[in-house]
Amino acid sequence: MTTYTPKERLYRVLRGMEVDRMPAVCFTQTATVEQMEAVKIFWPEAHEDPEMLAKLAEAAHTVVGFEAVRVPFDITAEAEFFGCKLKAGTREQQPSVVGHSVKTPEDVDKWKNFKFGGNARVDRIIKSVKILADKYGKELPIIGSMIGPFSLAQHLNGDNWFMGIMMDDPVVQPLLDMSTDFCIKYATEMVKAGADTIVIIDPTASYELLGDQFYDKFAVPYHKKIADAMRALNVSTILHICGDTTKGIVLMDKAGVDGISVDQKVNIKAAAAASKQAKIVGNLDPVQLLWKGTPADVTARCKEAFAEGATIVTVGCGIVTATPTENLKALVEYTKTAKYK
């Protein structure tokens, strides 16, 4: 059988094509304190500088062995771009949104004419994609990640968001439209910079929180717009939503993404059976297994997840910064032995 480059391997797996083995990739947050110490680049400074961001992202490959590089490490740069106030992160914790910028349709109008190319953090993230693509783009997948439109809208609108979608608040539709437009344009800028895979992290667009009717109305069509735009560019898309999405996989699959990333609460066998198009990727527990377990525990769970139907066995959510490198290396080494029938 032909041996593929990591870039070719991921592309082919997500499209159901023959490959030599499983890709060794992580679609969620990759940085750990041990990686930071190895390359002498640390949070929170690394969130802000394109060179530092790229160098720390590179550590997932050079220190751990993942056969891909991915930026950024958090999902707050998009809200910051639209005027939200952030609580600064630490070496161990990501930044978080603590102040919101949109209450009315008129507030949405103020932000509609957004542009890239300045010095906002999203622009610096785009620059980090280019740095990584220039160095690794011929060989490794270059993964650009962003918050999804539902969660971005919630960041902008704050605690009113969920009540708003239930009560037909007039801000909901224009805000969701603008958030989706932003996501498509942001993803496109990352692709122009060299990204070949886009991850949509939409944690609050949860089937557990929304139920089938609201999820189908307020999440699926907007995820589909992003997936369609990326498919037109021949770019793969992965959708990650936290929580037990087992019962929502059928709806998530309607979005037309190439992969659905699931966390440790999801029944892999049921998810794989429910998804007719997207590949199921996941679902190693980032806390109890990867942080607190042993390499032997990781290898054993990898085998189980593959047997249950995960197309790519990988982390089920963002990697905890305290995670030992040896546990992540156990995941990488497993993937190099996993072959598809």
From TrEMBL:
Q: Which InterPro entries match?
A: Methanogen_methyltrans (IPR052024), Mtase_MtaA_CmuA (IPR006360), UROD/MetE-like_sf (IPR038071), Uroporphyrinogen_deCOase (IPR000257)
Name of a matching Pfam family: URO-D
Q: Where is the Uroporphyrinogen decarboxylase (URO-D) domain?
A: 5-336
Q: What is its EC number?
A: 4.1.1.37
Cofactor(s) required, per the database record: Zn(2+)
Q: Which organism is it from?
A: Methanolapillus millepedarum
Molecular function GO labels:
metal ion binding; methyltransferase activity; uroporphyrinogen decarboxylase activity
What does the UniProt keyword field contain? Lyase, Metal-binding, Methanogenesis, Methyltransferase, Transferase, Zinc
> PANTHER family from the entry?
METHYLCOBAMIDE:COM METHYLTRANSFERASE MTBA
Q: Which domain of life is it from?
A: Archaea
The alphabetized list of GO BP terms reads: methanogenesis; methylation; one-carbon metabolic process; porphyrin-containing compound biosynthetic process
Q: What class of enzyme is it?
A: lyase
Q: What name does the UniProt record give this protein? A: Uroporphyrinogen decarboxylase
